[in-house]
Design goal:
six-stranded mixed β-sheet, single chain, 9 strands, Rossmann fold, binds adenosine-5'-diphosphate, about 270 residues, disordered C terminus, alpha/beta
Length: about 270
């Protein structure tokens, strides 16, 4: 059996002593791609920040590759793409310079970037399909390309776990498709990923498992097929009240299932 990337037992996270999310119990084996879904304000970001030591663990047990969050070792093993992160138009830096900052945790602060750092940056940019834009100014890139630069920055640290908070949100449909292709490739390469998202349709064929956090607790944990079945149940329950709603109706479903109903095999992305 593959070792756990993440192991939570009744874990609680929050800020300044106030619990935001608790009762989190699940294991994430290495190589798994897990989507974390749930309504706004339910505690998804607080959970991932808790793994990074950016929110407080306020109860239970949490281990990332066997170590408690907040440790230096854990921070080195996680690559993190924060929520709604874009690069300001005023940033004067090249793609290489930005991605290179993903290497800072991997060498003493006084040592300049070396051959290994440059190789890691080149490999990360190739992984996100921006190998030909190394010397471009980031301010000249589109929003979707900047998002890929930030994923490359996280990958440059050669992480064992890649955590992304809404990686496909706020970019146009074409960029979303490219980002989905990038995530697909990373999944095929065996990258363990935890993706906070509202856009499960964009991630079809990528995600192995869905965890829902609602009202500060764990509301669902299962496969995409099980998720689709649950969503269909929710939709039909609503339909039986007003009689005019069908499966996949985005008005009724919290997460549009769209053409992928989770039962028939998803189309290739
Ligand atoms: P989600 O990611 O599901 O939208 P969040 O984890 O961002 O939810 O927020 C959950 C709750 O935690 C909200 O009530 C929010 O106000 C609170 N919260 C988020 N960040 C902080 C913070 N840095 N300090 C205190 N409370 C916070």
């Amino acid at each position: 059996m593959s070792p756990s990337a993440l192991r939570l037992n009744d874990a609680a996270f929050g800020y300044g002593g106030r619990v935001v999310v608790d009762g989190l119990t699940f294991d994430v084996p290495t190589g798994q791609v897990m989507a974390v879904v749930g309504p706004n304000g339910s505690g998804k970001s607080t959970f991932v920040k808790g793994l990074l030591g950016l929110a407080d663990q306020l109860g239970g047990d949490a281990a990332v590759f066997g170590d408690p969050p907040r440790t230096r070792e854990v921070r080195r093993r996680i690559g993190y793409v924060p929520q709604r992160h874009t690069l300001s138009a005023s940033v004067r830096a090249t793609v290489r310079e930005i991605v290179e900052t993903g290497r800072l945790a991997h060498r003493p602060w006084y040592r300049p970037a070396g051959a290994d750092d440059r190789a890691a940056v080149d490999a990360a940019l190739a992984q996100v399909g921006l190998g030909d834009r190394v010397d471009a100014e980031v301010s000249d890139l589109s929003g979707g390309q900047q998002r890929r630069v930030l994923i490359a920055r996280a990958l440059a640290g050669r992480p064992d776990l890649l955590i992304m908070d809404e990686p496909t949100a706020g970019v146009d449909t074409a960029s979303q498709t490219v980002l989905a292709e990038v995530l697909h490739r990373l999944a095929d390469e065996g990258t363990t990923m935890l993706i906070v998202t509202h856009e499960l349709v964009a991630l079809r064929g990528i995600v192995d498992r869905i965890v829902e956090i609602a009202q500060g607790g764990l509301a669902f944990d299962g496969t995409p097929v099980e998720w689709a079945e649950q969503e269909r149940g929710r939709i039909l329950a609503t339909a039986s009240h007003d009689g005019h709603c069908g499966p996949g109706d985005p008005e009724r479903s919290t997460y549009a299932i769209g053409p992928w109903d989770g039962i028939t095999p998803p189309p290739a992305v």
